[in-house]
Design a protein that fits this description.
By secondary structure, the protein is mainly α. The protein folds into 2 domains: 93 residues, no CATH class; 68 residues, no CATH class. It is built from 10 helices and 2 strands. It has a two-stranded antiparallel ribbon with strand order 1-2. It is globular. The termini are far apart.
């Protein structure tokens, strides 16, 4: 089941498994109706943008969060217990806390001006900044950062706060 989250288009895989009857055997509560399609589309668009900037993110934990967005708490806990790799479940579970910490740093007064990011900062974006669970003002900040990076020099043009 974890592999669904690692697929490039996990929702298509989930739908294919449903059509073939596999999801009834693997985990009946998890269906494509329980996924956040709009969030998955936004995540895919962000992944494409990051790839065009030379950042190769692992979106699997973020994708699993969106594929299971509408599962009830008890069902989600049961699904997480069935996953083979506890490290993956930890990463998946910690996305909201990472996003909140990043939002706090991004919106702090100390970080009020944009400047080119270093490679370590780009790594932080890759790990923490997928726009999951962020308030609307953070999503608009992310969009502004992406827009400003389109106009700058290409390979090192991810702009962030130091």
């Amino acid at each position: 089941m974890e592999q669904i989250g690692h697929e490039e288009e996990g929702l298509k895989v989930l739908r294919a498994f449903e059509a073939e009857g596999w999801m009834k055997e693997l985990f009946p509560a998890w269906t494509s109706a329980k996924a956040d399609e709009a969030g998955l589309t936004a995540l895919h668009d962000l992944a494409v943008e990051l790839l065009s900037q030379g950042v190769h993110p692992d979106m699997s934990a973020a994708q699993m969060r969106l594929l299971t967005a509408k599962l009830a708490g008890r069902e989600l806990a049961t699904l997480k217990k069935q996953m083979l790799r506890p490290g993956f479940v930890e990463e998946w579970s910690s996305l909201d806390a990472l996003a909140a910490g990043f939002a706090k740093a991004l919106l702090s007064k100390h970080n009020s001006s944009l400047r080119p990011a270093s490679s370590s900062l780009r790594a932080m974006i890759q790990k923490q900044f997928y726009g999951l669970g962020l308030p609307a003002k953070m999503r608009s900040s992310r969009n502004a950062l992406i827009s400003s990076s389109k106009s700058g020099p290409k390979p090192a043009s991810v702009f962030l706060i130091s």
